Amino acid sequence: MKTQDFDFYLPSHLIAQHPAQERTASRMLCLDGSNGNLTDKMFLDFPDACNAGDLLIFNDTRVIKARLFGQKHTGGNVEVLIERVINQHVAYAHVRASRSPKIGSRMRLSEAFDVEVTARHDDLFELQFLSDVSVFDLLEQHGALPLPPYITHTATDDDEERYQTVFAKHLGAVAAPTAGLHFNEALLEQLQQKGVKIAYVTLHVGAGTFQPVRVDNIAEHKMHSELFSIPQSTVDSIHETRLHGGRVTAIGTTALRALESAAQHGELKAGDGDTDIFITPGYQFKVVDRLFTNFHLPKSTLLMLVSAFAGVDNIRKAYAHAVAKEYRFFSYGDAMLIEKQ
What we know:
20% of the residues lie in helices and 29% in strands. With 341 residues, it is an alpha/beta fold. Strands 2-1-17-16-14-3-12-13-15 form a nine-stranded mixed beta sheet, with helices on one face. The chain is globular and about 60 Å long.
């Protein structure tokens, strides 16, 4: 298929710049992939769409304050976006500067600490943090929250709360698993009281999630890589749900990607891994029955993923409906609940 097949017109005023006043106040477009039927609902209707014995799987990654500003030792300004923390003192990062830093050069960040460029891996620079303090602690003290490129304001205290899920646990993401942003503690409690089960996976979302596909033929696209972890307890919950006839719902494309990555060789297995899985139409899903997700960018790998899940024509129709009904798009926007085609 061609990248152009996944383009659509989106008026700029539909790109949500701020979250809804309450986490649960978003709208929800329901799409039945088996017949293409669309239903306009509110997110607060979500528990009504779940049955006792169903399983919801959330991504419990936590967004780090990954953006840093500073200067090269030669004087030029730099902007650093941490992509992946490797260990206590090493990270891979995107570096924006008038000229790319050279291997062996140093940068002073946040007027607080130095890093040395020790290697380059494609578009990413390997940085050695020259401090006794760990990378995560330095980012928490001196970094800024990396809001998506289509959000035009600088991150505020409100963003630091709302661009993080209420169940965020494991540090490492540079973008939020945005489907989870709709849930608050009260709604999670309501679901559990109804008999809906909850389990977690971890996938540290990278900045590549915002990148459009830039080749004409989608088969030529090189997917970005992300770390994920699947607990044995989650695998056991999925098996138990299947055994008793319940449905497995991935809360977000990142939870779905983690699960499908862990089932690449047939049986779903617990463990840690590094995935560059690229899900496009024709893919046979192995784990998930339903997907709860936000609306995605034109020509993006995530739009291709939901098109694989629901059907290309169904997604085109749903997105045209969402634009006509003025749903709010992207990270702070409204949501979809999709039954698999």
